[in-house]
């Protein structure tokens, strides 16, 4: 599960990691007061540099004009008006763009140096790992390609957590100086603790910055400017506060509906809908459709324990997609019984109707009962064809769609 | 021979009184697995529908039945604890079927398991299979209908978990007289591979579903090593999918250490980057974990590549020059 930047800032602040003053707003009118509050809290009097950022999960905000630096309350309001009344279009959004409903208004800070800091779970070592780089503010994948030596990876002991000595060592290796070292080390320890306590899948601060030397802070201040969090969906049951940050408007409506029925559905660009049991077989079914010359319209894993009702809902979702010109059902029953799937096909034919070609391949548990159910209902599902195996199924559905 | 489990493996079910636990305990019994009992805290001293004794703890179950393997069906919040309970009680093969175990729980479980196994030989180690997996099966020859206790499918096999047993072939029933070891991250793709190999006249020595989670127990390399050392496994079929780099690591390992014919299939060539494809571990992120990279690695290591999921059986047959 992903969250917004303003929510990520709140998690950091709660963990004692310093972030610049700022707040989330949802209206144009709130922009001017938010500007004034941000500059006041940053100790800048009544005028200063403030950043207004659209709160959407998709990237490419800056280039799309949805991150703006403003220098007055009026400019803040103008930026808010633009962002809240235009759809944001970037390479990461759908072509029609995204509606922006929330903005972050945060104090701008002078930056002396930028760093990268993140925690994730490394699948190879099976441990949480802290990733840090003195080249911050850019995509870490870019740094990894151009200058892999600039990336520090420090494994975290699963039972001890990140130790103070590790954090100190990394701070010195990154080049932090004087009082910055203790500040940076404290941020790393806090981030590692948040990561484990909150069941994160990614906790990233980019950039982590040092402000220029000032009278109050001769060594500068270490601050988190932007943050990104992902959470382990499997652990949300024990993270009610994180669950509360879920924003359904960021998700595909069909994907949400499917999730309610325990189905794993992902909408894709093609025109052949597929309904499969098991994630691996569902992916492989998409692959063989492509191999046979077609394009899958979706990924749909009905899982092993799905009820007749849930599978019927799966068909309803597939058929609600107007680009679907044919449907392939591929079931290898293990826990899932073929007769349950067959009954759901009959139900869907009655309740929704298969106007497009339907190719069914059934194998495994209760296959005879499943085939009989479909045979008996054949006259009511005229667009249905049976397939003898996976390869035959893919060929038939691609031929039917044309 | 076989790997991990065989006809003498004595199995308990943790979570035997839950609906899935009860259903698959019955399924394993009907296959012919030596199910010897189950565990549900608070229900110790009672019996399940099949007359198997239920214990409060795994330790009691092991002492009472001599069990050396377990299948875990307890719900995700308690699955990590259930794995550790089995480990601490000395169970040697732990199959965690449960889907949806928090990753941080598995990070801790793996740390404890790795510490437990450090310096131990293959025979002394505890093997965790899963979580989020279909289990393990070592097929036996068909002796009955598999319809119930009076007519089990086989009296010389062992199925732990949720796989449909009847699609598997024992070597005595396979006209090619060769057995394939199958290791896979996906349950239903394993069934597909079993079905295809059986249809081609091949048997399976053992099939291991290692599960679809990013942090899990045994991996491809563990299974390749076990299969390489098993005289009754004549070839190995490995089924991977997008996400992580385990297939690449396994390919490199196989190139050095495996002398048996190898075939591989990777699911997810058409999966969009950044999306989690059903399995928690099936995600392409930061350019890592693509099907192309895995297929290239397998090819470079001498694996025969199944171009489609319908080609898995034929691919291993090609690798075996059959």
Walk me through the structure:
- The complex is a heterodimer of chains A (402) and B (322).
- Chain A contains 13 helices and 18 strands.
- Chain A is an alpha+beta fold and 402 residues long.
- In chain A, α5 packs across α6.
- In chain B, 31% of the residues lie in helices and 19% in strands.
- In chain B, β11, α7 and β12 form a beta-alpha-beta unit.
- The model of chain B has no long low-confidence stretch (mean pLDDT 96).
- In chain B, α3 packs parallel to α4, α6 packs parallel to α7 and α7 packs parallel to α8.
- Chains A and B meet through α4, α9 and α13 of A and α4 and α5 of B.
Identify the notable features of this structure and list them briefly.
heterodimer, A: six-stranded antiparallel beta sheet, four-stranded antiparallel beta sheet, 13 helices, 18 strands, B: 322 residues, alpha/beta, Rossmann fold, 2 domains, six-stranded parallel beta sheet
Separate helix tally of chain B: 9
Instruction: Give the amount of beta strand of chain B, in percent.
Output: 15-25%
How much β-strand is present in the residues of chain A? Answer: 15-25%
Total number of beta strands of chain B: 13
Identify the CATH class of the largest domain in chain B.
Answer: Alpha Beta
Strand order of the largest sheet of chain B: 8-7-10-9-11-12-13
Distance between the termini of chain B: 22 Å
Spans where pLDDT lies below 50 across 5 or more residues of chain B: none
Helix content of chain B: 25-40%
Structural class of chain B: alpha/beta
SSE pattern of chain B, N- to C-terminal: EHEEHEHEHEEEEHEHEHEHEH
**Overall radius of gyration of chain B:** 19 Å
Task: Compute the number of helices of chain A.
Answer: 13
Q: Using only CA atoms, what is the Rg of chain A?
A: 26 Å
Task: Give the oligomer, counting copies of the same chain as homo and different chains as hetero.
Answer: heterodimer
Mean pLDDT of chain B: 96
Structural domain tally of chain B? 2
Biggest interface found: A-B, 56 and 64 residues
Under CATH, the topology of the largest domain in chain B is which?
Rossmann fold
């Amino acid at each position: 599960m992903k969250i917004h930047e303003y929510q990520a800032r709140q998690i950091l602040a709660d963990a004692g990691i310093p972030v610049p003053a700022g707040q989330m707003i949802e209206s144009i009118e709130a922009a001017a007061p938010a500007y004034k509050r941000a500059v006041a809290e940053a100790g800048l009097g009544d005028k200063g540099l403030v950043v207004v950022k659209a709160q959407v999960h998709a990237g490419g905000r800056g280039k799309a004009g949805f991150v703006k630096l403003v220098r007055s309350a009026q400019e803040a309001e103008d930026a808010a008006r633009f962002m809240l009344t235009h759809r944001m279009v970037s390479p990461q959004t759908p072509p029609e763009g995204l509606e922006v409903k929330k903005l972050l208004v945060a104090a701008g800070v002078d930056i002396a140096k930028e760093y990268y800091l993140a925690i994730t779970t490394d699948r190879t070592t099976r441990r949480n790992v802290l990733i840090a780089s003195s080249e911050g503010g850019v995509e870490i994948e870019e740094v990894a390609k151009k200058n892999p030596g600039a990336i520090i990876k420090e494994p975290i002991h699963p039972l001890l957590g990140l130790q103070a000595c590790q954090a100190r060592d990394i701070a010195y290796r990154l080049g932090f100086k004087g009082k910055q070292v203790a500040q940076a080390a404290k941020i790393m320890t806090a981030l590692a603790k948040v990561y484990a306590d909150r069941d994160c899948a990614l906790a990233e601060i980019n950039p982590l910055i040092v402000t220029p030397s000032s009278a109050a802070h001769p060594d500068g201040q270490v601050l988190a400017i932007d943050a990104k969090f992902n959470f382990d969906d499997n652990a949300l049951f024990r993270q009610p506060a994180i669950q509360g940050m879920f924003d359904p408007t960021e998700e595909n409506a069909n994907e949400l509906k499917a999730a309610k029925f325990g189905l794993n559905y992902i909408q894709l660009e093609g025109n052949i809908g597929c309904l499969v049991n098991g994630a691996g077989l569902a992916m492989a079914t998409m692959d063989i459709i492509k191999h046979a010359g077609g394009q899958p319209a979706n990924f749909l894993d009905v899982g092993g324990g799905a009820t007749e009702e849930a599978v019927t809902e799966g068909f309803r979702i597939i058929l609600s997609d107007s680009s679907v010109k044919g449907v392939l059902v591929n079931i290898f029953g293990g826990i899932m019984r073929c007769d349950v799937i067959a009954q759901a096909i009959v139900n869907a034919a009655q309740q929704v109707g298969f106007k497009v070609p339907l190719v069914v391949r059934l194998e495994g548990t209760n296959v005879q009962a499943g085939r009989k159910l479909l045979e008996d209902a054949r006259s009511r599902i005229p667009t249905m064809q049976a397939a003898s195996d996976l390869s035959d199924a893919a060929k038939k559905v691609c031929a039917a769609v044309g | 021979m076989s790997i991990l489990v065989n006809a003498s493996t004595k199995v308990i079910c943790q979570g035997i009184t839950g609906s899935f636990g009860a259903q698959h305990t019955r399924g394993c019994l009907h296959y012919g697995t030596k199910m010897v009992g189950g565990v549900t805290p608070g229900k110790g001293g009672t019996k399940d529908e099949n007359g198997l004794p239920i214990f409060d703890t795994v330790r009691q179950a092991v002492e009472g039945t001599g069990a050396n393997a377990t299948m875990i069906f307890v719900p995700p919040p308690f699955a990590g604890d259930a794995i550790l309970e089995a480990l601490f009680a000395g169970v040697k093969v732990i199959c965690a079927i449960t889907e949806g175990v928090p990753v941080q729980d598995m990070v801790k479980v793996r740390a404890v398991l790795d510490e437990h196994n450090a310096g131990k030989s293959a025979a002394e180690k505890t093997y965790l299979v899963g979580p989020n997996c279909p289990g393990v099966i070592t097929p036996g020859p068909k002796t009955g209908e598999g319809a119930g206790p009076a007519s089990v499918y086989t009296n010389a096999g062992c199925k732990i978990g949720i796989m449909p047993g009847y699609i598997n072939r024992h070597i005595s029933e396979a006209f090619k007289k060769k057995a394939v070891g199958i290791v896979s991250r996906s349950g239903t793709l394993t069934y597909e591979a079993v079905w295809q190999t059986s249809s081609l006249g091949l048997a399976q020595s053992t099939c291991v579903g290692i599960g679809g989670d990013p942090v899990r127990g045994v991996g491809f390399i563990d299974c390749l090593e076990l299969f390489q050392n098993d005289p009754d496994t004549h070839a190995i079929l490995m089924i991977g999918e997008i996400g992580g780099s385990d297939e690449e690591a396994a390919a490199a390992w196989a190139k050095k250490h495996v002398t048996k014919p190898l075939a591989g299939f990777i699911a997810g060539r058409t999966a969009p980057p950044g999306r989690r494809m059903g399995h928690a571990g099936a995600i392409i992120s930061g350019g890592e974990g693509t099907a192309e990279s895995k297929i290239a690695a397998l090819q470079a290591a001498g694996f025969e590549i199944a171009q489609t999921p319908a080609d898995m059986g034929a691919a291993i047959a090609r690798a075996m020059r059959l």
